[in-house]
Amino acid sequence: MRKEDKLKNIEQISALVKEYNHFYLVDLTAMDAEATSKFRRACFKADIKLMVVKNTMLKNALDGFDVDYSPLYNALKGATAVMFCNTANVPAKVIKKEANEGIPGLKAAYAEEGCYVGAEHLSTLAAIKSKNEVIAEIISLLQSPAKNVISALTNGGSTIHGLLEAIGEKKA
Question: What whole-number distance in Å separates Cα of residue 89 and Cα of residue 131?
Fold first, then answer.
């Protein structure tokens, strides 16, 4: 490969790392053509960009960032495909759903500003909540006490009103 082509590929990988917040490194080598095609379709449906890369080009692209991606470098052996996405847990869920006897294999991941190396982190990655999910939970938790107070005041108001009516009727 010519040097110009290598530089172009490195720039393309760098652009994808900038564009997407999270990426997973996976090994697809043990998959046949049919399984690979099915996995690519699943990635497309989940809004994941799947790209097969050369390890040295990926390493060179990651070296150009201020973020420390060095924990991922040990996973850059053999054939590597990169799954780029904007929601941290989606690729892990796709891998879990499509995996058959550990294939495709998770090598490493960069999700929620953390590095995860090894397939044993797949369940952890699938359980990570997205930013929007966390915000929704916080809003729900903040609204709950206010809803309880309003409900208590509404029910309490009718109770007090009923009590006053009963007392008024007793005197009459």
Answer: 11
What single string gives the DSSP state of each residue in 49-107?
EEEEE-HHHHHHHHHTSSS--GGGGGG--SSEEEEEESSTTHHHHHHHHH-BTTBSEEE
Residue pair 75/107 in contact (Cβ under 8 Å)? The answer is yes
Question: From CA 123, how far away is CA 127, in angstroms rounded?
Answer: 6
Cα–Cα distance for residue pair 105/53, rounded to 1 Å: 16
Query: What is the mean pLDDT, run by run of 10 residues, along the chain of 172 residues?
Result: 88 94 91 88 94 93 92 91 92 86 83 89 86 82 74 63 71 64
- Check residue 157 and give its pLDDT: 57
| pLDDT at residue 10, rounded to an integer | 92
Separation in Å, CA 82 to CA 120, 143, 162: 18, 40, 67
The 80-85 sheet, strands edge to edge: 49-53, 80-85, 22-27, 105-111, 114-117
Structure tokens at 21: 């917040």
Distance in angstroms (rounded) separating the CA atoms of residues 19 and 132 = 18
| Residue with tokens 């060179």, as numbered in its chain | 60
List CB contacts of 95: < 8 A, sequence separation 6 or more: 24, 26, 104, 106, 122
